[in-house]
Amino acid sequence: MKILFCHADTRETWNSSNWRCVIPARAINRLGSGYVARLMDMDDLAQWSEKAQEMTAWAEVIVLERNLFGPILLRMAALRQAGKTIIVDFDDSFPDLFPAHRSYPFWAGGIVDAEHRLERPPLEQFEEALALAHAATMPSPLLAREWRRLTRTFVVPNYIETQTYLGHGYRPHRGWIIGWGGGGTHRQSLMGSGVLPALLRVAKRHPGVVVMFAGSHSEVLENLDLPAHQKRFMDWTKYEEWPRTLALFDIGLAPLHGVLDDHRSQIKGLEFGLRRIPWVGSNRPPYANFKNLTRLVENHPDDWESAIEETLKEVMAGDGHEALPRVEAAYEYAMNQTSDQGAAQIIATYQKIRDGVQ
Hints:
alpha/beta; Rossmann fold; 2 domains; 6-stranded parallel beta sheet; 17 helices; 42% helix; globular
């Protein structure tokens, strides 16, 4: 099977494309056995470049990530007519974007920037494009259920690469770091989950605790009423460098809040599990598989405070993260969600889609 992944992220926004296109492609190529995957930018397809013509002619299965608007709809119709199996992949619930979300003006209104606006909102075009696809894949079971009205849907989880995450050992440091990491679209997760007042209480009670944010929302961290030595911010890093930041965490945090967050994946749980980092998260759908592997809380400050405090006491009294309750079980679960193990499942899903086409 020859598979072409067309990724949507730009260099500045690179994240989802790594999980939904690059990591699967690498794993499929390692699988061998006649399965080959290649990568191409969605812009090449939109512009119908020479590269796009060559790559789509080569491919049997074409996976299109997210950006289904403008000339992409015409390309989809033509490629389908040419006998290609067309799969759409996405990992966000675009109808649930709220006005304060940075992507809302684009998806709801077609606003590209101050001078450019699409004729029709991308969300409207996205729904039309799904009807041109043979199927859609996504990491969230909620997304799969909600989009079945327009096409066949299949859950393809975000699988994790062990070689990336296990290459960095624990980085010793003073105190106890309680860490959160995420991008610019996670503000509501922090502000609405109740985790911030809980962090404040725990850190005030334990002067040796350092609250660390990595990636974004330094302004939220700055507004915590803590002395400077109890706050630490690290800028966004490349995917390959992110595990080095994780290696500083003594406790991880995975807050979720709202409908949009309910459609996210279990990435953070897998990262913490593979790194053997004890963590506390919101009791929401993305972390359903971790109910017996970590502390999941209802989104109330008191619940967060209790769970963080209990985890902190375990860390302080422990002889290393590996000895803590649930940590080893979470590690074993993560090791069963690796990209090399997932490659065969991805191929099986694509084959099922192809069989339905034929």
